[in-house]
Amino acid sequence: MDSAASKISCCERVREFFKSAKFLIYLGHALSTWGDRMWNFAVAVFLVELYGNSLLLTAVYGLVVAGSVLLLGAIIGDWVDKNPRLKVAQTSLVVQNTAVILCGVLLMVVFQFKEQLSTLYSGWLLTTCYIMVITIANIANLASTAMSITIQRDWVVVVAGDDRSKLADMNATVRIIDQLTNILAPMLVGQIMAFGSHFIGCGFISGWNLFSMCLEYFLLWKVYQKTPALAFKAGQKEADDQELKHLNVQKEIGSNENPVEGSQLMNETAEVKKNTSCCYQMTEPIRTFKDGWVAYYNQSIFFAGMSLAFLYMTVLGFDCITTGYAYTQGLNGSVLSLLMGASAISGICGTVAFTWIRKKCGLIRTGFIAGVTQLSCLMLCVASVFAPGSPFDLSVSPFDDVIKHLFGDSGSLRESPTIVPTIEPQIQTNITVFDEAPQVESYMSVSLLFAGVIAARVGLWSFDLTVTQLIQENVIESERGIINGVQNSMNYLLDLLHFIMVILAPNPEAFGLLVIISVSFVAMGHMMYFRFAYKSLRGRLFLFCSPEQKPDPNIPSLPNSV
């Protein structure tokens, strides 16, 4: 009887989990992320194919996306803060998926009728199509940014409630979903385009987004129904109170007979009218941009957020730069694929380690441990610069290749390929598979490089989750959107800077210098976090107490994030 009862109880718990708001968020996030990863992978391939195997369109798209988020991140976050949660989530979902569907249909038309379009109006119609594709794709990315801020930075916090362990588990699960879809989704769409065509690939992605949009819309509504707290929002309440106050002022003016009080109410009305004037409305985005960055600077977690942004200033990730360098060092596509799989496993281990270490040592100390782990592993990358087989040579000018590509041997200016910023530099998986790789004398250097990169993912993802939860816990509800929007802008800014660094020193002989600069920026980032942690814990960063140990009554209590 006890065994049967336990089985029934277990089945009920499983059934309740699949009906819970937490599982519905996981499912919706998996669908959304799967579509995002397929689109981010495919759009770069489509743009290269459209422009005759040139990186020009892809470069323009990458710069437009990065610049848009950099400039509009705070404004998007402010919009998220000032509107109801369900409206924000559903609007972002519909705009994002509709834009991807339209872009997919437009790309199908261009692929099917490219020759005819190129002859109409001296090719301007085809150029217009290119501009429309990049514009619509950029709108989709901005809507995806709003969706990410809404769900991952706000809804997850509300669903978890006051249970910080539950919040940590949800953040870790969301990150695992990110890493798995980042590997599997590009593989699927890549196979479809390889065995089918780009036309079929566009159609598949458009169809997937239509199906996913309907299902995600329903899941968002179910989560909203199961979590009544989502209906109450601090920022929206303040906006409603302000509007109600404005209506009351107008009503009191009409019924007030006292000239003094009436004059005061008239002044308040004049102030309201001033705030709703045309010029005031036109300059509101500029004020929002400024206020967002000022608010970010004034946050208690400012140095923690900056430390995370500094980790984007690195070439030590699985993006097109590092994989291209690996090819010059004799690694073929098959080996790179295996290394990428190992990197994904390492990242998942870091995600799991985050939840365990946080329970034992606290959130802030978890970030410190993760930072030390990442920086220690990256020392292998520094060692690879001076190991046998390294092409590192400071006698070779890093600007030789730039001058040669720009002007050629004849000295005349010519067009050169542009390196494209990635959307998520720390988890980028879009690599080029090479059939044959050049031979090198020793693999010691490149082996140390990738051993350090892969091992450092454990600390990287633990640190990323730490800073994410610190922002979730320490930013007030009415500012979550704008602060996370500015954080995204900072990440994109440092990402762009690291690509500029590569453009200035593109030859393999200078890659060792880029590695040293990258590790230096990672070290500076963790120094910022150390300052934040030391100040937050009042100098007791290295005081690790077991759960059974009673606290010293002479030491004041630690902050909530410990």
Automatic annotation (TrEMBL):
Alphabetized Pfam families for the sequence: FPN1 (PF06963)
Residues passing through the membrane, by range: 59-80, 92-111, 123-143, 294-315, 335-356, 368-387, 510-530
Record's keyword terms, sorted: Cell membrane, Ion transport, Iron, Membrane, Metal-binding, Transmembrane, Transmembrane helix, Transport
Main localisation: membrane
Superkingdom: Eukaryota
Cross-referenced InterPro entries: Ferroportin-1, MFS_trans_sf
Location within or outside the cell: Basolateral cell membrane; Membrane
Record membrane topology: Multi-pass membrane protein
Functional note: May be involved in iron transport and iron homeostasis.
Family, similarity comment: Belongs to the ferroportin (FP) (TC 2.A.100) family. SLC40A subfamily.
Annotated protein name in UniProt: Solute carrier family 40 member
Species this protein is from: Cirrhinus molitorella
